[in-house]
Amino acid sequence: MIFIINPKSGGKSNSFIKEEILKVFPEAEIVFTERAAHATEIAKNTTHTHVIAVGGDGTINEVSSALIGTNKIFGIIPRGSGNGFAREIGASLDAKKAILQLKTAKEVLCDTGQINGDYFINLAGVGIEAEIAHAFAVHGKRGMWPYFKIGAKKVFTYKPKNLRVTFDGQTKEISPLTLVFANGRQYGSNFLIAPEASLTDNMLDMIEMPNKNFFSLLLGLPSFFSLSIRPFNPCITTKIKEARVESNGPLVYHIDGEPKVSEGPLEIKIIPNALKVLMP
């Protein structure tokens, strides 16, 4: 078993985790990442069958991307800000408890998504949340408070792009506040953007949030934090296998919260049963 640790994920030190891991898994190999994409390199080259990501959504994406389509088994110790995928599979946000969970976790074959050749394990999207992710990356400071401040500002200044979306033989023109392709249900911090999504249904949930006025968004906000109380849910959900998103200019999008820019269309699809995941 190998543990790949991002030493600074979530804006906090993770050096103490090595000692905690060795208490439970004394034979484990432990490697700290040194740069962007280093986690992917380590995961690709390891001979261990069980590969554990210790970090936030970015680290989780880097490690899982290297394991898709292999027989290696993926696990998580969440150390990020939102921890969306970790919450989705029931991993404890307490590092010591998450380590213990790995001893009894069950192996589940999960779907993954792909966008322009890159994999996403949880969510990808274009629109306001992609712009927020881009601004958050430039800002440099991690944590929920900087993210909230950036997001609040974007709500008042963001201008939706005109998009042409083709999915499963249908086409429509939209100008959404956001367009999300969901494998998992939430961004993190229990913000449920896609409450009907499943990691094992061989489908993506395409979530369109129309560009409504600010007060309509406020009314709908509680809907994102509850599975049972959703009276003003502002989103339109469509189950899809694949989609193409086009615009007249560059598209800012995100993959599991990490921002990217495409000069051309976005090609999105589901990859069924692609990753073996340890679930508590």
Could you walk me through the main structural features you see in this protein, from its secondary elements to its overall organization?
This protein is α+β, with helices and mostly antiparallel strands. It has helices at 17-24, 38-45, 57-67, 84-89, 95-104, 128-139, 144-157, 214-220; strands spanning 2-5, 29-32, 50-55, 73-78, 106-115, 118-120, 123-127, 163-167, 170-174, 178-182, 204-209, 236-240, 242-246, 251-255, 258-262, 266-279. Strands 1, 2, 3, 4, 5, 6, 8, 9, 13 and 16 form a ten-stranded mixed beta sheet that branches. Strands 12-11-10-7-14-15 form a six-stranded antiparallel beta sheet. α3 links the parallel β3 and β4 (73-78). α1 runs parallel beside α5, α2 packs parallel to α3 (57-67) and α6 packs across α7 (144-157).
What are the salient characteristics of this protein?
alpha+beta; ten-stranded mixed β-sheet; six-stranded antiparallel β-sheet
From the spread of the alpha carbons, the general shape counts as globular
Please state the CA-atom Rg, rounded to the nearest Å: 18 Å
Low-confidence stretches: none
Find the structural class using helix and strand composition: alpha+beta
Largest sheet: 10 strands, mixed
